[in-house]
Records
---
Amino acid sequence: MKSKIYIIAFTFISILFFYSFSFIKKSALEKVTEHYILRNTNFKNAITQFNQKVKDLPFTKENIKIIRLEYFKLRTSFKKWEYLSEFIDPGFVKEYINGAPLQKIEANSFGPNIIEPKGLQVIDELLFSEDVLQSKESIILALNDMTRVLDDQTLLKIYDRDVFIAARQGLVRLYTLGVTGFDTPGSLNGLVDSKHVIEAMAEDIPNYLTQLKNKTLSDSTNILLQKTLSYLSLHQNFEKFDRLEFLMNYINPLYKNLYEVHIQFGFELPEEIMSKTQPVNYASTNMFDANFLKTIYYNRIPKDFNNNQTVELGRQLFYDPIFSKNNQRSCASCHNPNKGFTDQLPTSVAFGEKGFLKRNAQTLINAIYSEKYFHDLRAKSFEDQTEHVITSAEEFNTTTTEILEKMNTSKTYQNLFNKTFKNSDSSIQFKYIQFALSAYVSSLQGLNSAFDKYVRGESKTISKSVKNGYNLFMGKAACGTCHYAPIFNGTVPPYFKESESEVLGVAKNPYSKKQTLDDDEGRGNSLLKERVEFYKYSFKTPTVRNIEYSYPYMHNGAYKTLEDVMEFYNKGGGKGLKIDVPTQTLGDDKLNLSKSEISDVILFMKSLTDTIKLTGKPNNLPKFENNEILNSRKIGGVY
Amino acid sequence: MKKKIYSLLIAGGLASPSVAQFAFPVNIDTAWSVKTIWMPKSPLKSQTIFVGGQDIVQTTATYTSPAGSTVAKQWHDYIGFVKDNSTSGDLGWAVVNHEMVSADPKIGDGGGMTMFKLKKNTNSDTLSVVTQTLTDGRAGKFFNVDFVNTVGETGMNCGGITTPSGRMWTAEEWMQTSNAAIFSGGSGFKDTSNFIIGTTTPAGFPGFNGKSIKRYLNLNWMVEINPLTAKAVRKQYNWGRAGWEGGVAMADNKTVYLFEDGAPGIFAKFVATTANDYTSGQLYVYKHDAPTFWIPIENNFDTLAILNKVAVRRGASMFNRLEWGAQSNGKIYITETGRDVQTYNTGNNVNGKISPTLVQGYKTRYLIKNSVVFPGTDAAAADSVRAGKFFDYYGRVNEFDPATNIIRSYIEGGPLSASANSQSTTAYPPIHFSNPDGLDFMTIGTKTYMIIQEDLNGVNWNRMPAGYPNTNCETYLLDMSIASPTYSNLIRITACPPGAEITGATMISSNVMLLNSQHPSSSNTFPYNNSLTYAISGFNNMFTSNGELIKDTMSESFNVYPNPTSREINLNKEMDAAIYNISGQRLKVVRDTKTINVSDLTPGIYFIQNTEGKSVKFIVE
């Protein structure tokens, strides 16, 4: 491999970085395009060959070995194909090639049409399951379309910028979905896979590096690619793989270098080719930078109002009990800033103190980084969720019209809104309330924890236990395959556009002798369009950041300590505990974590705590000129 | 800085474009440009009329709630419009379908509709919503259409029909199959008791009154509403229960065509016995290979309630998700939106057995595309399905001729076709037409244009260019005088919010189009994240008086010219280009294109540079 790169380096001589004489010699892009086409052909051939083996060979113990060997060859060609092709058509890869091995609902359809999973992840699971000898037909079915769709696919032209955008996206994918074992649920082949992804990059990127004026950058990038490859060659033990070291010494530096190379060439940036804001901040050079994701992608606030003034108005609204029918409850009632924006109760106190709500209050810190909101994912935006809380009889027990009528009797409030939203219509409108609350929650970013600072190199030390805990979290304990880095929630990398929910089989009472499934059907009993069997008992994957404060745990708040939660996962969730769970999406195998391993994972999760500068309360609430009773309302509410 | 540009020029001039890709400098010296072009304000003006989830609707006494007001439901789809021919001076009544399904103690559970009356400013095309007092005493600007107290709730409201004489039906495509599903844990329908036909006002339906049916069976019928009173009139039980998406009513006031959004989806016809009385007549489903083309369906409630199944059994033609229809020049045009999923796994098991509906679907498609009946056996049709030939992610607009009962494809989606071998790469096409949904016509001068609105089923199969993971649905105009049109004849109107489904486009006056931006699932900012009804006016500036599209004149020395309507800058050939702001910072780079979308640029001075290093100043007004 190395020799090849040197040859390229010496054959490519150019005067200007953007221009090559190559009427004879090929440009970097032409080389990469050739690779792109060749990898497509290789991948198609590998599928055909694998398909043939599966069809021809009877599924015996001996033959399975041969079939698996053929499968690994297929994976090699797939992983070399992946980084460019998935960037070009991500929907295609998700639908036919490498989507999660779970049923889903057909998008934009005429009825709740269930799509059966297909593609490599399904095959991976089958080929390494205990029932492999009986899985011939299922594998053929999962393979059915792959060659055909690849034949039907038009290969779109790629451009210089695409190579860099795709490679950086590929690094995030490799780190979050590859080395964690996410996309190899059966074979756990993630480390070998990762090597092949980097190999493809190491075939492509050096074609550019030879033309780079900045030799230091060119050399260090070349060396990094080679070092990453050799690191992956030397470290292939899934359980022992040091994912923290790999992140800090290889992935993040490469992620940074590729950005710098992109900039040096002056190739157009993502924001110059599309007018819409994307979740990932391309200019961020570390996956654990506080600005790695852009909150302005997740909220729906117009550009002109996405500012501090709106945040401050939102802070006042957050603490104002005017939102509840009895003027005694505010957002802070259940999302108490002093308790990590939760209430630390199993489920929150209901309106009128008449019992409790159905579900546990989630932390609001880093909550904005989601596609959908609530435990059952029923709200499509943060702005939408406000109305649910307002109109719920158990929460604020009022209506948006009633709130507006109340608020519009305050000149002070009206002036505040007019000033913030430069509004000529002097009355307060509901959309402005939504913007302000959303701006405030968007400002609740806690991404400067001890762990973040260590990864970014801002602090030099962190305990051995935390390091070990992180490696377990991202590896053996399989936490990171649902709680994705760097937010450690269910927003799926590398696009960070989709929120996931999972069926865990959470017990109604984990402390009872005979545990039974909690009867809350979650997502499967919420939106009409999602009422399907496999969403029953499915709940949103929350962030584990600030988990130190957000006890008790799970959607029903039934688990008192993190040790109890870890024990639940360690035994394989509900199914592992012999609870009857119809469609558990969590693997029901035991994790075999020791006591000290569990303790390390918990210590790691606690190292993600960051509430600094987020808990500031307003000193007073806006006055009502003609209503003394309202003026005596308590900041943050009574209960 | 200047020096760099000169060297760049030389280099650019030498480079063979097929070999080196041009890297535009991040900054340029803006003093360098001499030519100036102007991007005038768009002749099209848009105005937001009605925002779901924000505007307040007046409600009737519903369930236990007294009459009052509340926030409108979301997800706007069809817009019905009835002209006010009185002397009021108002334009007419608009009714917007809400496709959102939610429990609401004031509006009613399930879907919903909102009515409002529009007035046009005499001196401009600006619209205003008129304050009205309805016959039931409700007063305000927006009114909830009462289904609960009249005919029972709807599941959701998507497409619809407005007759030339101003009668209106709403459709509910999302097929319901059980009471448990519509109860939806309390978030859908609170009341799942049996529904008794004929116990509500106005009295039910001749022949079916007194019949007690399961609540979910009262959904998925076409429902007639009275837009003036904002009340439903009746569920049209005799038209059958199916995943109806839309329809077309003929001027004879007897014939109605109905389209089902399903896969398989059916095409049906109802002919009334007496003009203007749609409560009695004959229902048919279309079968392209039957001598009479239409299979009669008996007027029996149990048969009507499972119309799709009955039609499948009787060998009706099977379509791949029919959506909306509209008529022009005596022909009916129907969008068939297409579907990604069906081809490969649905109905196609390991042993290679293909479901009969797919066989019939393939044969229907064969006729539509080739204008001849599939010559082979059913087994041969099944083989074609198995070989992936039914794959249909593009969709099409079909044309049905009521005089001959023949249906054919009028315009196919395109253009990226399956390549036999992937030995080369293709640049992204300037027009990529897929998944047509909303449909209407407009006439300017002597010319008629079809208005086609996309609703993308996904972003895969290159429906979006590389790196654009969000859908971007477009609205196209098609000149109906073009014989055998293809996607390349489409004119794009980009004056629509990005990211959302554009639907419901309807001309409410010669120069004003009303349209909906519905359930934008992507991350638009307000108001484009809400379902939104808005108006576009100024079409008279886009066309000559006899309806010809005004061609832009090309600026002489530099082959760049603006298109103020679509907010695009046109280039004389496909090329790479970059846009810079007044300080010379690069803002945008386009590759292999003839158009640059500048709709996101705020008014000001910009520079555009092509691959030859030439730059031109342009001013956005």
Note: Residues 57 and 510 of chain B are 28 Å apart (CA to CA).
---
Amino acid sequence: MKAYNLENLSALVVDDNRFMRTIITNVLRGLSITHIAEARDGREALEEIRNSPVDVVIMDWEMPEMNGAQLLKNIRSGKRGINPLVPVVVVSANTIARNVLAARDSGMTEFLAKPVSAAALYARIVSIIENPRRFVRTGTYFGPDRRRKFDPDYTGPKRRAEDRTSDGLDDLDAIQRT
Amino acid sequence: MSDDKPKVEFVDNPNPLKDKVKIKHGADPKEMIAKADEAVKKLGGEFEKLFTDNIRQLTSAIAEVKLGGERQKAGVSVLRRVLHDLRGQAGTFGYPLVSQVGDSACKFIDLSDDLGNTEIDVLVMHIDALKAVNQSKITGDGGPIGQELMSGLRKVIQKYNARGA
């Protein structure tokens, strides 16, 4: 992994727990990020994103009133001057698959399991820098492309309309023929 | 298959982060990470205090849970929040066992529709385990004592899950 000078980045830390915000802020400061804003909930976070340049959002998932999913969908909506492409790292102690998939399907960029370590958070930031994913808009989703890998030998179901061949084969046919 | 699948539109990501950061040639990222770890370690004393406060909160919340009705609802809400915070923070300060016990208790609450005496007993065992770790300052995996605590909790949950089988 490369060493990056991160001092020009602006980060927003969103968590309803004060001590958790302090932990993440200390990690970021240790990684040389000096422009760090904090928000206690989704409303404060949206206000901050609207009014200040934010390069990366690091947010909790379980929060009262506006939870992580609602906040993330608000960000990705791009309404009221919000940059919908801002990278979002979801930080959660709830790592059951259903929770991680919900965060992915709400438009997260990266997921980080609590307890947080400096190495893991730095790795997520490096991943955002080195592997930016294009964004995808479908009827029900806007966010980073959920396909991280493009495998030419992929044989699973092809779900996108563009993926289907012009001869009208449906997904099952496609699987049987490959 | 019908043609009603939504069209997919791709949007380029300009990746402004890359323009704002610079590679520190010759530098080792491990040094940056060690510096960040040091910055977090300084919060260890505050965590120890919070951990002890959390044990008090859990003790009073479980007493509320035992009362049933609306007070149980409020008690469970406090219990879940405190356990969730603990599982998210303790591992950072050298208490992975606390994170594991907290995680087990949160999952148990999340998967329980109702809390009767049996469910409350399971939760009490989790809180007792956390009290033991707090009182004896069991850091790391806790060695044989830690293994015993975790295997005891696993057995309790396995026994609970086997009830309806």
Note: Chain B has seven helices and two strands.
